[in-house]
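Example record for the data management plan.
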Amino acid sequence: MKNDVLESIGLNKNEVLIYRTLLGHGEMIASDISKESGLTRTNTYMILKSLTGKSVVEEIDRKKKLIYRLAPPQKLVEWAEIKKREQEDNLRELYAFMPILSGAYNLSLNKPGIKYFEGIEGFKLIYDDILKQQGEVLIMASEFDRSRKEINNFLDEHIIKQASLGIKVRALIPKEDYVNLNYIEEAKNLLVQVRILPLEIFSLHSQILIYSDKVVLSSFKNQLISTSIYNKDIAQTFKVIFGLLWDKSLSEHVEILKQVASG
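Corresponding structural encoding:
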């Protein structure tokens, strides 16, 4: 039997060496296997444990002495099939993780273009990228921004990190139950300036985040999905739109503050 056949199914060189040793001698004790293979006793015991764990070598307790012998060759096939299924499962997991991995790779290169992120881990990558950038952050919040507990916890911690780095934020947010005078004051202390708009006229289903030369749209309603656009001209366009909304929102914001204070 060629060594490369055994190695191709996943056995390492020392496992192949002991397998071939047993193949040529039948039943053996560990010390004899060590002498015949040229491996140390410690390595021999470790490899025998690995091979018995794969069920391709059998361990027999005979008169208080451990004897080792090969399992029927079919066990090699069975173990190779298990290994194959594990590799297929790992490959499927890798494919599922590719959007996050690709997004992180592109962010690390700071390449212009469009990146797609999925799930909480992808969302965290985007917000962590904010900490590396310079300049103001602009947010147009959706009515679903605070609909997920895991997102709330992450955002609360992240805002504190931003403030510690001196990152200023302006946020347009819809009037929700959590929005009150205390919320606005706490946000201000963390360098977040808030303008509140009535939900009936500012009901976004996706959050829009603008920073540096990037625009990120994130949907929280069902599946958590984010799309990051890295383009200077597109970012400039969104900044102009945000600025217009910010200026026009002052009267609505003041009116809501009066209602909150009186309520």
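Summary line stored alongside the record: The longest helix spans residues 74-109.
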